[in-house]
Structures are given as C-alpha cells and as structure tokens.
Amino acid sequence: MDRLKDLEIDRSGSIAENTFLAIKDMIDCGTLPAGTVFANEIELGRMLQIGRSSLREAFTKLESINYIHRTKRGTQVADPEFRAKAVPLNTILRDSSMRDLIELRILIEQEVAAKAAVLATPQDIKTLKRCIERMEDSVDQIPVLCRYDAAFHTELARMSGNKLWNIIFSAIHEQLEEQIATAFEKDHSIIDRAMVFHARILAAIQNHNEELARTVMREHIENVKIVYSDEE
C-alpha cells in the first residue's frame, strides 16, 4: 500500500467524494493494479489522514461501480473484467438525453436540498460557503470552477444522509461535466446565475427552511434545463 502514501486528496468540499475520485483515478491509470489489497480502515484512514466514515463512504461508492470488492484477504482492487460487468447505471446515463438527465436531477436534487435544510450542521454551512467562495475565486479557471460547482451539489447530497443520492448525482454529473464546462465558457452570465442560485439555496438551508430550499433548487435546475434547451 506504499502507492497510497502519495495520494493527494482535495480537502475542500466532500472528503469522501474527493477520496473516491482520487482512488478511482489511481485504479483507472493502473497505479493501483487489480489484486491490490488495501490496509484495514483504521490504518488506511490514519495514512490518508481522513476519518473512517469518509473512507467507508468512498469505498461504498467504489464497490458500487465494481472498482473494489471484499474478499477474505480484505478489500482489494477488482479485475477490469469484473468492473466491466457493473456498468448498468453509467451505461444507462451515458445513453440518456440531456433533457432526461436534467429532469432526473430536478426530481432528486430538490428533495436533497430540502433534506439538507433539515439536517444541516454549522460545519455543513461552512463547507457550502467555502464551495461558493471558491467558485467566486475561480471564474477565470473553468475546470476549477466546475469542480467547486459540482462540490456544492455533492456536499448537499452528503448532507442529506442518503448515500444512493450521492452516488446517483456523481454519475449524472460525470455525464454532464463537459457540457457544463462548455456552457460556462460560452456565456459567463450562466456562471453568475449559478452562483446566485447557490447563494439562495445556502440561505434557505442556513435558515433550515425546507420548502424554500426545495423551491430554489428546483428553479436552479429548471434554469439549467432552459440553458441547454436553447443550445439544442
């Protein structure tokens, strides 16, 4: 497991999500080959300087897409052939239309925002504020901006307490990532509107206003839908 000592985890946004992405990247590029056995959660968490709950959540997502699996030897990197059998969700989303993907986001994310408003802690609020601040600081760096835009939504999914929502959002965003970046590059007013919506969503969550959080999130994703409808 020496390869993991140099693993760089983005400490902004969701630690669990960023750990998932970092390990997934290492598996994709072959740095962690099939059969690699991970240390136990306590030891690995100490090595990566992250909590067990974040590590467990990252492993749950990796297991859901067949990147790792549990054996008597412990948790290990799965064979590529095993991963290939697991793609149902990603394959379905990849073959879906932009309209269908955004409508799925509307259905899921308005409820995610409402639940986050009920469950939000002071630390959650700080994390969301940091995502918005990083977006504001990155308006001229579209890839960085997109990362913090996604981090805002991913953090809401984590706050909702529903791991499936987190997994589904990550899969949807992966399909939309390129289109989002292109839209931001073509029209900076889209960036401005996104940040205004994020600020309104944050205010609703900070006030634990469940219904307002649901309404503003729906307006936000509906606005995204209009942007892409205009481009079709």
What brief labels describe this structure?
2 strands, 2 domains, 11 helices, Four Helix Bundle (Hemerythrin (Met), subunit A), 232 residues, mainly alpha, Arc Repressor Mutant, subunit A, two-stranded antiparallel sheet
Secondary structure elements and their pairing?
Blueprint: H1 15-28, H2 41-48, H3 52-64, E1 68-71, E2 74-77, H4 80-84, H5 88-94, H6 98-119, H7 122-137, H8 142-159, H9 163-186, H10 188-206, H11 210-231
Antiparallel strand pairs: 1-2
Question: How would you characterize this protein structure?
Answer:
With 232 residues, the chain is mainly α. The chain is built from eleven helices and two strands. It has helices at 15-28, 41-48, 52-64, 80-84, 88-94, 98-119, 122-137, 142-159, 163-186, 188-206, 210-231, and strands at residues 68-71, 74-77. It has a two-stranded antiparallel sheet with strand order 1-2. A hairpin with a 2-residue loop joins strand 1 and strand 2. Helix 5 (88-94) runs parallel beside helix 9 (163-186), helix 6 packs across helix 9 (163-186) and helix 9 (163-186) runs antiparallel to helix 10 (188-206). The longest helix is centred in the C-terminal third of the chain and has 24 residues, at 163-186. The protein is globular. The chain starts with 14 loop residues before the first helix and ends with a helix. The mean pLDDT is 87.
